[in-house]
Design a protein that fits this description.
It catalyses: a (3S)-3-hydroxyacyl-CoA + NAD(+) = a 3-oxoacyl-CoA + NADH + H(+). By secondary structure, the protein is of the alpha/beta class. It is about 45% helix and about 15% strand. The protein folds into three domains: about 190 residues, Rossmann fold (3-Layer(aba) Sandwich), CATH 3.40.50.720; about 250 residues, N-(1-d-carboxylethyl)-l-norvaline Dehydrogenase, domain 2; about 325 residues, 2-enoyl-CoA Hydratase, Chain A, domain 1, CATH 3.90.226. A hairpin with a 3-residue loop joins strand 15 and strand 16. It is globular, with a radius of gyration of 28 Å.
Length: about 800
């Protein structure tokens, strides 16, 4: 068992981080206001200050920023109510309020003189316990602090967020020459545990780590693009998911970030890279775009733009960098790229792409030039910008959403092999990697990535991980697999907890996942005897996108109704095994958790959700209803809420409360609502107040483990199948169906939408029964199954499923 795995197994509980009650953000620009929003998301009261206004009130600058936050896409707040935690003000009237703040973040314009002048005014109001940090992306942290007293300089350091702060995981923490390590460690723990950030310590060098490497990569991409005569769309295809980078590629990402921001950081980079000559200069086309204010999404056009044609359709155009004119988009063709995309493993894809014939294959030449230059530059930056290769890789994964950092990529491609090829071509190699190879080390990492090559000691050192961070893969490697099939595995994650890991292709739920969950959790299972508790989660990008629709569509088109009936029964049996398991089952959803995945989650004893949770029962979008117990669970929730509000179970079916709670349940399912956060999932009744929310995705597994152990330690008893549930009945059913009909009359719903919604209302209300008729959970499940089968036979449902599978979007027919 590796040392890291042992640490992860033993450190399942971590100390609570710093209690931070109120913060101030100085500067209400894009970054400052969004930092304030994310602090408000996690319950911190925030004072947002900027320059005083001459018209529209003294706080007009900060007020406008707050209003923009409320309307921003993607959403800056977890829920709209979080905005109430932000108080606006200005630098002249409100500096005295800084005495109430535990953390003050400077985020004004990137100008050394302006920052120093503001800090000199701020300093008298900073309490001795408070942290004072800067969000600068390029100005040396130490130089900004020269106006501060020695006492304040001890609590002064850089906290460089990436935009948008809610969604981007990286915060580079940059000490000044006088920073107290304990102060930096305390705030780093808060950033990690309370704000959900990957905290990477950087050195006080221009652009720190991620932008230093990232901007080099972008500028080098432009350089190789010109060498190989490639266009914008070709570059975006070559620098996207095929090599483990975001699907936006280079230019679409630049449009999202803003070309002005990109240019600013690039100029900082050019100043830092004094040996690069013209290689670090902005290309002429980018300078022209800046002059014309073609800054990307914020100005309506950059490398790409959208326009509406005469018939109202939205068309997308791309910039020709030679003529600087827009032209219609087209899909680039690279046979080698198409072949590599079919390979699941990124290391294998990289090896395939780099092994292409460079004399014949332009894509192979592009990748070889770009990646070898990236690797050499990254090695040259050690140890100037970071303590280790592991820090650089972590910064690029979290700050630029790379799947692998540059040194991890290099290991995947083979360090010795690529160095030999570069040397054979008489190209330069970084002295850092030459020294590593000469010393006998062949890779940047060892022991399955848990140790990195340390330049100072010339030995492999353990990659430091904060307590409480773990991945299923580590336990899989250390403890092995208890049982598995192609879709799921049961892993022992220590302390008597078994983790059911979902790992099917694209996280879809098929027969294999249903079988493994059911056989693991049903009362007679040997695993129920062997384990005290269970967690259901995954290491994949998304928890699950739901059931396997392709399998369902093929069965429906072939008229295999008995097979579909069996599949629905099997799915229901799986969710019932979760709910009635004698051991507590905590489901740990994150990212996309749709359809059948939400039904899995609803049946857990508890849920421990990641804050960024996009969860919903979306079946109506493809012309179906939640048939795995999801509609049933909403019927039970609505009934129980009405009983609690009305106070009389015997007469609840004729109360106004049952109408209100059923309406909410009906709207959530019939409108296929998806939460924009875990906090919003609570308001949709997809999560409860008892369910936990984890801010840091890396901590989700162990926090879910802690939650299920807490249930086990408290003497967990599973629920029993209910049989005396007062159905809402025909009158409420008619009310819900009328609501759907009125939406159709108003143009908000199609005829098929109304038909599907009618099935939802039918199930929620217990069918055509008198109000208060006592029914069972199994009765609701039978109604679900009947409705699901009926809708599968509808031509319009099959059209919706086929369209969604082809286009990834719902069809309104």
């Amino acid at each position: 068992m590796g040392a890291v795995a042992e640490q992860e197994m033993k450190t399942t509980r971590v100390e609570a981080p710093l209690l931070l009650r109120k913060a101030a953000v100085l500067g209400a620009g894009t970054m400052g206001s969004r930092i304030a929003a994310h602090l408000a998301n996690v319950g911190v009261n925030v004072l947002l200050l900027d320059l005083p206004g001459s018209e529209g009130g003294r706080n007009v600058v900060a007020d406008k920023a707050l209003e923009a936050l409320k309307k921003s896409k993607a959403a800056a707040f977890y829920t709209p109510s979080a905005a109430m935690r932000i108080q606006t003000g200005n630098f002249e009237d409100d500096l005295a309020q800084l005495a109430e703040c535990d953390w003050i973040v400077e985020a004004v314009t990137e100008n050394l003189e302006i920052k120093q002048q503001l800090l000199a005014r701020v300093a008298p109001h900073v309490q001795p316990h408070a942290f004072l940090t800067t969000n600068t992306s390029g100005i040396p942290v130490g130089s900004i602090a020269s106006v501060l007293s020695p006492e304040l300089r001890r609590r002064w350091f850089g906290t460089h967020f990436f935009n948008p702060p809610r969604y981007m995981r990286l915060v580079e923490v940059v000490p000044g020459p006088d920073t107290d390590p304990a102060a930096m460690a305390a705030l780093s723990a808060f950033l990690d545990q309370n704000l959900g950030k990957e905290v990477v310590r950087a050195r006080d060098t221009p652009n720190f780590i991620a932008n230093r490497i990232g901007i080099f990569f972008i500028l080098e991409t432009l350089r190789v693009m010109r060498e190989e005569d490639l266009n914008v769309e070709e570059i975006d295809a070559l620098t996207g998911t095929a090599i483990g980078l975001p699907r936006t590629g280079t230019f679409r990402l630049a449009d999202m970030v803003g070309l002005d921001i990109l240019a600013y950081v690039a100029r900082n980079f050019a100043q830092a890279r004094t040996d690069a000559g013209g290689q670090a200069a902005l290309p002429p086309f980018l300078e022209t775009m800046l002059e014309r204010k073609w800054l990307g999404d914020k100005t309506g056009g950059g490398f790409y733009k959208k326009e509406r044609s005469a018939d109202g359709k939205e068309e997308r155009f791309v910039l020709d960098l030679k003529t600087l004119e827009y032209q219609p988009t087209s899909k680039p063709k690279f046979p080698a790229l198409d072949m590599a995309k079919n390979v699941e493993s990124l290391p294998e894809r990289l090896r395939i792409l780099l092994s292409g014939d460079q004399k014949k294959d332009k894509a192979a030449r592009f990748h070889w030039k770009l990646l070898t230059r990236l690797w050499n530059y990254s090695a040259d930056c050690l140890p100037e910008i970071a303590d280790s290769a592991a820090s650089i890789d972590a910064a690029m994964r979290a700050g630029y959403n790379w799947q692998l950092g540059p040194f991890e990529m290099w290991d995947a491609a083979g360090v010795a092999e690529t160095v030999a090829r570069v040397q054979a071509a008489d190209e330069p190699i970084s002295p850092v990697v030459e020294a590593m190879l000469a010393g006998g080390a062949k890779t940047w990492y060892a022991d399955n990535g848990t140790a990195y090559y340390d330049l100072a000691t010339r030995r492999y050192q353990t990659v430091a991980r904060p307590a409480g961070i773990a991945h299923i893969a580590t336990f899989r490697a250390s403890n092995g697999v208890v049982r598995a099939n192609p879709g799921a595995s049961l892993i022992d994650i220590g302390d008597g907890v078994g983790c059911i890991e979902l790992h099917s292709t694209k996280s879809t739920i098929g027969d294999d996942i249903m079988r493994l969950i059911t056989k693991t959790l049903e009362p007679s299972s040997e695993f129920v005897r062997d384990f005290r508790a269970f967690v259901i989660s995954s290491d994949a990008e998304n928890f699950s996108v739901g059931a396997n629709l392709m399998q369902l569509l093929l069965a429906a088109q072939e008229g295999e109704w008995e097979d579909i009936d069996l599949t629905v029964r099997t799915f229901q049996r799986m969710t019932q095994s979760i709910k009635f398991c004698p051991r507590p089952v905590v489901v740990a959803p994150y990212a996309l958790c749709l359809g059948g995945a939400t039904e899995i989650s609803l049946h857990g004893a508890r849920r421990q959700a990641h804050a960024e949770l996009y969860m919903g029962l979306v079946e109506t979008g493809v012309g179906l209803i939640p048939g795995g117990g999801g509609t049933k669970e909403f019927a039970l929730k609505a009934t129980d809420e009405a009983i609690h509000a009305f106070g009389d179970a015997s007469r609840v079916a004729i109360s106004t409360e049952i109408v209100d709670t059923m309406k909410q349940a009906f709207e959530t399912i019939a409108m296929a609502k998806v939460s924009t956060s875990a906090a919003e999932a609570r308001s949709l009744n997809l999560l409860t107040e008892e369910d936990g929310i984890t801010l840091n995705r890396e901590r989700l597994l162990l926090e879910a483990k802690n939650a299920t152990l807490a249930l086990a330690d408290a003497g967990y008893l599973p629920p029993v199948m209910r049989s005396e549930i007062p159905a809402a009945g025909e009158s409420v059913r008619a009310t819900l169906r009328l609501g759907a009909y009125l939406m159709q009359q108003s143009g908000y719903a199609s005829e098929h939408d109304v038909k599907v919604a009618g099935h939802v209302a039918h199930i929620l209300c217990g069918g055509r029964v008198a109000p208060g008729t006592r029914v069972s959970e199994q009765y609701y499940l039978d109604l679900e199954r009947e409705a699901f089968l009926s809708l599968c036979g509808e031509r319009k449902t099959q059209e919706r499923i086929a369209y969604t599978l082809s286009n990834g979007k719902p069809l309104r027919n």
